[in-house]
Structure formats: C-alpha cells, structure tokens
Specification:
The protein is α+β, with helices and mostly antiparallel strands. It contains 4 helices and 7 strands, in the order ααββββαββαβ.
C-alpha cells in the first residue's frame, strides 16, 4: 500500500503556524550508552534553527557536546489521532557561543534579553539545532 507522505506533509507556512501554536518541543539526544534521552523544552525558531535554553550541566548538553547532533519533534493534536500534525527535525546541534545570537534567542524565548541570573543557581546556556533532515505530517489532510 503506498504511503501518503507527500500528501500529508506540512508546507513551510503550516510549519510556521505549528511552531507558533506549540508550547514545547521534545528534544532527543544520544547518551554514551547509545540510548536516547528525550526531554520537553520551551523553544523558539530563530534564523531557521530550533533554539532553547537549558542548564549547562544537563544531560542533553553533555550529549550534544559529545555527539554534535540532536533531533526534535514539535507536534499538536495528540488528543485525536486524525487531528495530529507535527514536524521532526534532525541535524547538527551545539551550544551557542555567539553573544549576539544568544541575545536573539533570549528575545525570541522571553521577549527580552535576560538581565538577571537564573534563580536555580545553575549556569544557563542556549542550544541550537540546525535541521538537516525534516519530516512533517498533518493527518487532517487525509480526511
């Protein structure tokens, strides 16, 4: 039976709408044991990259530093399968060191550049995932 991938793919405009509507991305990295580590993060799309903030000493940052890759899914409509739509990105990932890009990410995430240290007492870093492979779907297009 043929697949409907082309028929159900989200357009770039539909992906942009989903990114605006979704609250979290699920980011996956690979640990030293070869197993996936998947966590939800608040995210923003900045210059075509999925960006988020996290603790510098987090597992996902350690994994990204070791492998240089990650994947993420942003989706919506989980309550009703026929309404489900999403985007999966896989590609290079890194901790952002460019101070101007860090500010761009902060503006996108928080509406402003953060001016106070994080209350948790942990150093915070920004991470970017640059998509090399993108897969999207919108099961609403099947109906």
């Amino acid at each position: 039976m043929p697949r409907n991938y082309d028929r159900i793919a989200l357009t770039e405009e539909e992906q942009a709408v989903l990114f605006e509507e979704a609250d979290v991305a699920r980011v996956a990295t690979v640990g030293p044991d070869g197993l996936p580590h998947v966590v939800p993060v608040a995210f923003a799309i900045v210059d075509g990259k999925l960006c988020f903030e996290t603790d510098a000493d987090s597992v996902k940052v350690s994994n990204i530093k070791a492998t240089g890759v990650a994947a993420a899914i942003v989706d919506a409509g989980e309550d009703e399968y026929a309404e489900h739509r999403g985007v999966q990105w896989r590609g290079d990932a890194r901790v952002v060191t460019d101070s101007e890009f860090v500010k761009d990410i902060e503006r996108a995430l928080f509406g402003t550049v953060k001016s106070i240290p994080d209350a948790s007492g942990h150093e915070r870093v920004k991470v970017e995932l640059t998509p090399e492979k993108t897969v999207s779907w919108d099961f609403r297009k099947l109906g």
